[in-house]
Request: fold
Amino acid sequence: MWHGYIGFEFLNVTDAQKQAIANALHALGPQHDIPCHLNHFVWDESGTRVIFEALFDEDTITLTKVKHYLANAVGINPDIVSDNVTSTAFGLLVTLVVGGINRLRFCVFGGINSDYTTSHSSAIVYEELNPFGGSIE
Amino acid sequence: MQHGQRFAYYPGRTNRLLTAAAYLIEKYGGGVIWPTQEIAGSVLISQPAGYEGVITGCALANPSPVGYCHYFDGINDVSALYTSRLASLFNPNEGTLACLVKLDSGVWSDTVTRYIYSLGYNNDNRFNIYKSSGVNSLSFYARIGGAIVSRSISLATYDWFLIACTYSDISGLFIGYIDGVEVFNVAYPTGYIGTLSNSYSSLGGLFPSTLTNPFRGWIGYPLYLRGVLSPADLAYYTIQVGV
Reply:
């Protein structure tokens, strides 16, 4: 099991597709009585980006599995989902492509083999570079 | 049940703090403290019982001067304080908010607004204590029927400190304290409308529609009193807290 953060940015999906993918992601992470291990998340104000934290089963957040979440949401064969991987300050950023269009990006902050502190620090770096905004002052 | 019996489980200084809080809650006509030295599932326990909040994400970590507190990760952690019972207890005319705080490294200069402790009903009627977007700046904010009373003070410590503020539309004063020392004293208007709501009553962030401005650091033992805590009693409480 891995305790850390994963982030998603929805680029070209409908609201219904986004919700279907989000619902699949909400279900990840086992039931546990420690709040920081339970699946919890935050959306940015635009509703296009979300960061999840949980005690994840590593097998559920692989590139292949995330491709399946996307494929199921848009009703296509996962085999036609391609990916581009770039290295960033907060970890590897994977862009999933369908029909030549970038659909979503995701990042396992710190990498799947990182410890919690590393994943947390990476998520903080991401949030500082890409502020989630939000202020009611 | 006597308070000494109720709190006998807690050791040392934690016991002293909770006993002192129970004394203040009685003296000031009611209130709640949310002890943070343990996490019972996702339940934010309360003293007296019946005002339990909901913890989202927080971890139990890093002993404060009085025991363990809750760590908020600055990303997606928040604790909801609202219950209908707390809303019924809430006194919009006068009261006191207090809690222990320690900021995580770098937060004073990260230029991000981070909410620590909030009680409120809607955007126009609320109390917020937060680390503001300015460097080394802690803000006390009251919005009363839309009228804003706000003060920011310069603070840069990464040690634990005790925040407290009192409000009264009877005396007409909004007063802030750090470690029991008064840091501002300003005029406070009448006109708070409503009680409390889930969207504006929380620890470590706000969630009017979605979580915003999450806090990064440790928060301990938030206290709410229905009356205006006197400087003398705050001094007594500060000694029990040990900051």
